[in-house]
Prior knowledge:
Low-confidence stretches: none
Largest sheet: 2 strands, antiparallel
Radius of gyration: 22 Å
Amino acid sequence: MSEQAARQAAEPAAEQGPGQARFPWVQVGALVLGGLLMIYGIVGFWPAFSPPGADGRQPTLLGLEVNPLRSALQLALGVIGMLCATRLSTARVYGWLLAVVSAAFVVFGILGVLDHDIDWLGMNVPSTVVAAVFAVLGLVLALGPVRQGFPGGERSPVHAESRESR
Length: 166
């Protein structure tokens, strides 16, 4: 690349200068869902270590049955979500991961509600519904459209990912 071509390529960035970094909604969604899952996983440990009730079921927290294994998986999924929120491409991958893992929770929840002997994730109906909501939100993150332009100007900020990196 010649020196003149390099200067011409740098001029738009120099004109624009530093500014606010704008994040696509997918990255913000991955950060928020990761945070929610992390909190959900941490709070789930609180009553999870108490002994099961007379019916053999785990204790509940706000109607959601809690289980240490599921809480650990949700905590890990939340941390992964917060780490994946740094780039648009990884936030999309996180959406797929969230959708697949939450769909698996739904399947295990339905099986656990039907047969309590195979309920090793400690899922009741409300827990299964919450997992289904997270699965749908994961699909929204993975498949939702992202606007190419940014509000307030025709040029995208310097910090925005290029089309090749997505």
